[in-house]
Every structure is written in structure tokens, then in C-alpha cells.
Write a structure and sequence with these properties.
single chain, alpha+beta, 6-stranded antiparallel beta sheet, 9 helices, 10 strands, elongated
């Protein structure tokens, strides 16, 4: 079992405990709107490499994929980010300016929660060669599905598209490799009633919630919602350690709380 950390604000910390869930944000509403450009660029390159085969053997499928691509700007998946490093300066700066918390979770707990719901968990892939190899595997799956012929082609492509969204969700530029990021992700929700909306000071953010108290049936439930520790951000006052402890106690959670070791006064 490894520990994966989720950086969040004070309000986010309380919201996770209150809802017993992790919020996977609609990718159209992330702070960095270009973050998924790497994945879509890879998709287009691999589509071009397979274009001749698709046109020769499955022209209608190629036409359907081309039509889907024209609407990429309105397509979405939902992601929540974690990292192996619970006290990293770049993460504090990027997520809360040092005024927040890093929540350590058991990777086993997160994975079992994902398996019991419509989510997947995977490490982010940073190298271009690995991107191309993984995306070609996605296209090979499409050819296998089409060869099998058990479903109508149009339905097959729509089901396959969820795999595309999953791959794009975990591709990132190699310059971010130090983040050692993991992501929990899901494709477009089939039932729009499952999409929730939260508010920030400046906007409304749609998200899907992954319940931390919903585990795989054959596994024993994880205590403390899978939390293993809480790290208080480097810009927070010393009194935020007991404050975090009181908050955890309020929700019946008993895990250690420690201060960041980074000398950073905040943004």
C-alpha cells in the first residue's frame, strides 16, 4: 500500500469530510484549460497514423470519429488529482498558495472506491513514446471491437470513445514529471443527475463525486475514509494543526496531522 496525496483548500478539506467523497472536476472547468492539449494532440497523431486503415475497412466509423472530433471543445471527462509527494512546493503553490492541506489517502482505499463506482485510477503518463504506444493500444482495441462485430458500429464507437477519454485524461507533458501524479477519472456521466455543482468565489464548477465510503463488496471497508494523514500547508498558522484535528474528530476520523516542512510564507 502506498499513500497518495490530494492538495486542497480549507473549504475543500471540510467538503471532502462532510460529503465523504472526492470531487472529480469537469475538465472544461480546470484552472489550466490547456492541460489536456497533450492528450488530444497524441490522439490526433495516432488517428492520422491509422487513417488509411480506417478509411479502407471502416469508412463509416472514420466518418463518425471525424464528427466526434469536431465537437472535442465541448467534450469532457472528470478528474481528481493525487501525487506520491505530500509536501511539494510546486503543489502548494499550484493548488492553494500554501494556504491549505495535503490529504494522504491509502492507494488501496482509493482504488477500491473507484472500482466500486464508475471511476478508474491510474498513474499519469509523461513520456511521448509512452503516450503514442498507449494510444495505439486504444486504436487496436477499436479494430478488435469492430472485427468482433457483436454490436452495431455506431454503438461500438461510442463505447470505445470512453477509452479515448480515459487515455487523454492521464497524458501530461514530460516537464511535469516531478509531480508523480495519479488521477481518478471518469468519462461523461450517462446520468446527468449524478453531476453536481460547487461554487468558488468566482465561478460554478461541475463535478462527479466518488464516494470514499463505497468499497468493493468483497473487501473489508477502510476506516477513516481511507485517510492516513493530513499535512498542513506551509503558509498556514501553527493553530491550524489543532483546528484540523478538531475537524477530523467532528467527523469521527482519527489520523495524524503534521505541519509542512517547507519554509514558504505563501502567495
Amino acid at each position: 500500500m502506498s499513500t497518495l496525496y490530494h492538495y486542497t483548500t480549507p473549504a475543500g478539506f471540510q467538503g471532502i469530510l462532510q460529503s465523504k467523497g472526492i470531487w472529480a472536476t469537469d475538465t472544461r472547468f480546470l484552472n489550466d484549460r490547456d492541460e489536456f492539449k497533450t492528450g488530444w494532440d497524441v490522439f490526433r497523431d495516432v488517428l492520422a497514423a491509422n487513417e488509411a486503415r480506417l478509411k479502407q475497412d471502416h469508412q463509416e466509423v472514420y466518418n463518425q470519429i471525424s464528427a466526434i472530433i469536431r465537437g472535442i471543445h465541448i467534450m469532457t471527462s472528470h478528474v481528481a488529482s493525487f501525487t506520491l509527494n505530500g509536501d511539494m512546493l510546486s503543489q502548494w503553490r499550484g493548488y492553494n498558495g500554501g494556504y491549505g492541506f495535503s490529504l494522504g489517502f491509502s492507494s488501496d482505499a482509493l482504488n477500491s472506491a473507484a472500482q466500486s463506482q464508475s471511476f478508474e485510477m491510474a498513474p499519469v503518463v509523461y513520456e511521448r513514446a509512452d503516450h503514442l504506444k498507449a494510444m495505439q493500444g486504444v486504436f487496436d482495441t477499436l479494430f478488435d471491437i469492430l472485427k468482433d462485430g457483436k454490436r452495431p458500429q455506431r454503438q461500438s464507437v461510442l463505447i470505445w470513445w470512453i477509452r479515448v477519454l480515459g487515455a487523454v485524461s492521464i497524458f501530461k507533458n514530460t516537464h511535469f514529471k516531478e509531480e508523480a501524479e495519479y488521477r481518478i477519472f471518469a468519462g461523461v456521466a450517462a446520468d446527468t443527475d449524478s453531476i453536481k455543482v460547487r461554487s468558488t468565489a468566482r465561478s460554478l464548477i461541475p463535478y462527479l463525486q466518488m464516494q470514499l465510503d463505497a468499497m468493493v463488496p468483497h473487501m473489508a471497508p477502510h476506516s477513516n475514509l481511507g485517510l492516513t494523514e493530513v499535512v498542513v500547508g506551509p503558509a498556514m498558522a501553527a493553530n491550524q494543526i489543532p483546528a484540523a484535528e478538531f475537524l477530523l474528530t467532528q467527523y469521527g476520523i482519527d489520523v495524524p496531522v503534521r505541519a509542512s516542512s517547507i519554509p514558504y510564507i505563501g502567495a
